[in-house]
Design goal:
Layout lengths: L1 H17 L7 E2 L4 E6 L4 E3 L3 E2 L6 E4 L5 E4 L2 E2 L6 E4 L7 E4 L8 E7 L5 E15 L8 E4 L4 E4 L2 E4 L3 E6 L17 E4 L8 E8 L4 E17 L4 E4 L5 E10 L3 E6 L2 E2 L6 E9 L2 E8 L8 E8 L4 E10 L14 E5 L35 E5 L12 E4 L2 E4 L2 H22 L1
Parallel strand pairs: 2-11, 12-18, 19-26
Antiparallel strand pairs: 1-4, 3-9, 5-6, 5-10, 6-7, 8-9, 10-11, 11-14, 13-16, 15-17, 17-18, 18-20, 20-24, 21-22, 21-25, 23-24, 25-26, 27-28, 29-30
Length: 418
């Protein structure tokens, strides 16, 4: 018995001498950061060497144990153990939420415990909060306008502002402006446009269009402030109006609005950029159609009027020289030294006693000339007759001869009485 007991003691001593010591567990991978988009599945790695019979525990950012080995301690089915290999003690989080972001720890139950830190980043696409952002607006010229584009996302989105030039082309970022708020001081009609805020981050991009309409009083422009035309002809008056909003635009004549009729035709042409052209066509002008016409444009801000004149060509307002074709002849006053046939009322072919080679003064001119285009404010020159644009003045010598003849007749009468 003693020999057997001695052999057992020797065996225990030999085993204690030659037995390998238990290995200390270690993590196969260093601390890492994991980035995942919201809604996806995140795998937080924890690979352990020489775990032996020790325990593995996962804790969330709130320092709450969520896994013990492969058993879930957290009442959330999205969390589970993921072990594709024996050494893997990974944590799987399905349908990741932004609230899941933070620092997670994988711990081994040693003395002291071994801990590996994994930081989870959750990326969220940018989103514009509709209830906290600006909508389409109408403002008055001169006001201060504030456009807001309230966004969320992770990483936090960068916001740029653009102004649309056309429906298919937008301008570069407004003065390199960045931020969720765009302020326009003393807004003018030139700022009337579609604005766009663009929010972007590493995950995606989202935009929002905001229409800004600027109200302003009408502006009236007349291409021609005076138009001349002949009686019986047609004419067109045009009035260009720029305003927002457009109220009513019309023509007035002698205090009354001109309505569409057989003589008046009204058309409105849209020129774009808040501009319209009001065209008034007048057919077969009569003497009563000439005068001052007024273009009236009004909206809820103001009413503007501008006048133009339609005058008659060939009427009393026209200045110019007398043309032979425009001259008309009227009988002059009766003269005692002329026979009744010489005082006729028709235009003669040639003035009486006129030498065409030496245009002088006719001896007894029975006619005077009146031009339909002669100005009424210029009085006729006494003793002057115009025929075919040629002027003849009674010379002093002829007048002196007539005086001598008259004196001689009176002298003979006196002698005869004696």
């Amino acid at each position: 018995m003693s020999m057997r007991l001695l052999h057992c003691v020797e065996l225990v001593v030999l085993l204690s001498v030659y037995a390998k010591p238990e290995e200390t567990p270690s993590f196969d991978t260093p601390a890492v950061n994991v980035t995942c988009q919201a809604g996806e599945t995140a795998i937080l790695p924890c690979r352990i060497n020489s775990l032996g019979g020790r325990q593995v525990v996962w804790q969330n950012p709130q320092r709450t144990a969520i896994l013990h080995n492969e058993r879930r301690l957290w009442d959330d089915p999205r969390f589970s153990s993921h072990r594709p290999y024996i050494k893997d003690w990974n944590l799987s989080i399905m349908l990741v939420r932004p609230t899941d972001e933070g620092i997670y720890t994988c711990s081994i139950s040693t003395t002291p415990p071994l801990t590996k830190v994994i930081r989870l980043y959750v990326q969220v696409p940018p989103k514009i909060i509709d209830s906290l952002s600006s909508r389409n607006m109408i403002v008055r010229e001169g006001q201060t306008v504030i456009l807001i584009c309230n966004v969320t996302g992770a990483p936090y989105p960068e916001v740029k502002w653009y102004k649309w030039i056309t429906l298919k082309q937008k301008d570069e970022a407004i003065n390199g402006f960045r931020g969720e708020m765009l302020v326009i001081h003393n807004i003018s009609r030139n700022c009337d446009a579609m604005y766009q805020c663009e929010a972007s981050n590493a995950v995606g991009q989202v935009v929002r269009d905001i229409s800004v309409k600027v109200e302003f009083a009408p502006e009236v422009r007349l291409p021609n402030k005076r138009i001349g035309q002949q009686v019986g002809k047609n004419t067109v008056l045009e009035c260009i109006v720029t305003a927002y909003p457009h109220g009513s635009t019309f023509w007035m004549y002698k205090g009354r609005e001109i309505q569409r009729s057989s003589q008046h035709h009204l058309e409105i042409y849209d020129e774009g950029h808040n501009t319209v052209t009001l065209s008034l066509r007048i057919y077969e002008l009569s003497a009563t159609d000439f005068g001052r016409y007024t273009c009236v444009a009004k909206n809820k801000i103001e009413m503007i009027e501008m006048d133009m004149e339609l005058y008659e060509i060939g009427g009393s307002k026209t200045q110019g020289s007398i043309k032979p074709s425009e001259a008309t002849y009227q009988p002059g006053p009766p003269r005692p030294d002329l026979s009744p046939s010489d005082q006729g009322g028709t235009r003669p072919q040639e003035p009486r006693d006129v030498d065409r080679n030496n245009l002088g003064t006719p001896r007894n001119p029975p006619y005077r000339v009146v031009s339909t285009t002669m100005r009424n404010d210029i009085p006729p020159i006494p003793g002057q007759v115009k025929v075919h644009n040629h002027s003849y003045r009674t010379t002093a010598s002829v007048q002196l001869s007539i005086a001598f003849v008259t004196i001689a007749i009176l002298a003979l009468q006196v002698l005869g009485t004696v």
